[in-house]
Specification:
The complex is a heterodimer of chains A (250) and B (270).
Chain A: E1 9-10, E2 13-14, E3 26-30, E4 38-44, E5 47-58, E6 71-78, H1 93-106, E7 118-128, H2 133-147, E8 157-164, E9 167-170, H3 174-179, E10 182-189, E11 194-204, H4 206-236, H5 242-249
Chain B: H1 7-22, E1 38-42, E2 50-56, E3 59-70, E4 81-88, H2 103-118, E5 128-130, E6 134-146, H3 151-165, E7 167-174, E8 177-186, E9 194-201, E10 204-207, H4 211-216, E11 219-225, E12 231-237, H5 244-268
Helix pairs in contact in B: 2-3
Chain lengths: 250, 270
């Protein structure tokens, strides 16, 4: 920009004190909403996002019915007060695209063939946005689907990585996203080792691309651990951790 | 755009395709990494600052550039504006309809815009006239005229070809006011981004899917690379997955195939 650009990394530390591969603080809670069949709330840095799931339910309008599987509907929406300048509440082109990629990130994990001729609705509401909101939204939405008791092949865990100047970093916040040099949101099915969301912007050399992509997958696996803990807390009481759940299963 | 309209036919067709692909063959006898015949004509619309008609197989896209002046965004006061838009015309396919843009059309426009923008193809700082007050605005609008798969690449090539051949009026600044002169100069194009789109059908990835392949595909991925083999944009689409190793393979293929296509675009827009 016009004035000297603010350094985003000084002496190996980012503006909020993180190292290049540190995540922001993340907290997950499952099952807070009363009416929804499943729900999850995520705070990831300053992101505050609620995801709720309804269904399987009847499909309206009927012509959208899929004869062999469930129709997954997804809406990613940002509250007008979620960003610095008030956002028009009408869905923007950005939100329409993100709703599409979130749906396509979740569908592979849902066993949609188990629910033919029904609709499963996923509502993702961004109450406060702070960079990486689509990955946080996917992470919460996958938990909400599990909370709703929908049959799933795997969890879906999202994390964005990117570039600040020539440094690959994990989990960009708002400032780093706007002033950094690239953003790469990735979502994975951690047990099946498959990528369900990949978007890239910025200029990456072949090596930087691979480093950022592999870092995002590694961080996604870390997020998966937190998702398991959140589900364990919901269904087995606050004190139970995922390792205890594993023991109980054996 | 999605052409999955007849469930039974598409399912049978897909089984046939998967069988062929296992032997490394495609319905139209192309190699897996081979794109269809690409033609590029430029300067087809005299009233536009730049224009191009691109055909990729039977997919046809026309892009037109219109250049004016406007005010910059508050967060980038010293940069010109570049906006890429795309519309799938109702005439383009029996399944296209008039009305507000579909989710698919919005994704198309945004993915093409991302490739052009993120590669820094146009030097936007060169389009600043009076910082914070007046900048050159470049609109590239694309009409998809006929749909036969892979709108992403055809549209992207049309935008690149139109921008590379676009001419704009030279502006002079007097007392903080920009005035157009009669001198025509090229748009400050620095790089030539090329997008390469793959469809995964069963286990195999194919470059430049046509409509039939798109109707049977499990997953789609678009990767845009620049002249130096950097990756500048990507988008995975459709309701299935891709493995990490397939992503890296696709990146390498897109760099290789992108190089050939870039040479053709540069040749056609000299």
């Amino acid at each position: 920009m016009g004035e000297a650009k603010k350094k985003l990394i000084v002496d190996g530390k980012r503006l909020d004190g993180r190292k290049w591969d540190d995540l922001r603080p993340i907290s997950l809670q499952v099952g807070l909403m009363k009416n929804a069949d499943g729900s999850a709330y995520i705070e990831w840095g300053k992101n505050k996002i609620m995801a709720a799931v309804y269904g399987p339910k009847e499909v309206h309008p009927k012509h959208q019915v899929l004869p062999d599987r469930a129709l997954l509907r997804c809406r990613y929406h940002m509250a007008p007060f979620s960003v610095d300048e008030r956002k028009n509440p009408a869905p923007s082109r950005r939100e329409i695209e993100i709703s599409k990629v979130i749906r396509e990130a979740l569908v592979p994990a849902v066993i949609v063939e188990d629910y033919p001729r029904t609709a499963i609705e996923v509502w993702v509401e961004v109450l406060q946005s702070d960079g990486g909101s689509r990955c946080a939204g996917i992470t919460a939405a996958a938990l909400a689907l599990a909370d709703a008791g929908i049959n799933m092949r795997d969890m879906v865990s999202g994390c964005s990585c990117g570039l600040i100047e020539d440094t690959v970093v994990a989990d960009l916040d708002d400032t780093e996203d706007k002033e950094g040099n690239g953003d790469m949101p990735v979502a994975i099915m951690p047990n099946l080792g498959q990528v369900t969301l990949l978007q890239v912007d910025g200029i990456y050399s072949r090596e930087q691309f691979q480093k950022a992509f592999e870092l995002a997958i590694e961080k996604g696996k870390q997020i998966y651990g937190m998702q398991r803990d959140a589900l364990a807390a919901r269904f087995f009481g606050g004190e139970t951790t995922s390792s205890q759940v594993e023991e109980a299963a054996e | 755009m999605s052409m999955k309209k007849n469930y039974v036919v598409e399912t049978i067709r897909k089984a046939q395709m998967v069988q062929l692909l296992a032997d490394g063959k495609r319905m139209d006898e192309r190699a897996l990494d081979q794109h269809r015949k690409l033609t590029i004509e430029t300067g087809i619309i005299q009233k536009a600052n730049g224009s191009a008609r691109v055909t990729l197989g039977n997919t046809q896209v026309i892009a037109g550039v219109k250049i004016a002046t406007g005010t910059p965004f508050p967060d980038s006061p010293d940069k010109g504006l570049l906006v890429v838009n795309a519309e799938i015309l109702p005439m383009a396919s029996p399944y296209a309809e008039p009305g507000p843009p579909s989710e698919e059309a919005i994704e198309l426009a945004r993915v093409v815009d991302r490739g052009i923008r993120e590669s820094e193809m146009v030097d936007l700082t060169n389009l600043c006239l009076v910082p914070g007050k007046s900048v050159v605005t470049v609109f590239v609008d694309c009409n998809v005229m006929n749909v036969d798969g892979n709108l992403f690449d055809a549209t992207s090539y049309a935008v690149v070809a139109a921008l590379r051949t676009a001419k704009m009026k030279k502006y002079v600044v007097k007392d903080e006011k920009a005035e157009a002169t009669d001198v025509l100069i090229p748009v400050p194009v620095e790089r030539t981004p090329v997008s390469v789109t793959f469809a995964r059908i069963g286990e195999k990835m194919v470059v430049d899917p046509d409509t039939e392949e798109e109707a049977s595909m499990d997953m789609r991925i678009t990767i845009t690379t620049d002249d130096d083999g950097n990756v500048c944009a990507s988008q995975k689409g459709e309701a299935s997955t891709i493995s990490p190793s397939q992503v890296l393979e696709a990146v390498d293929t897109s760099i290789r195939v992108g190089k050939e296509i870039r040479a053709q675009i540069i040749e056609a827009t000299k």
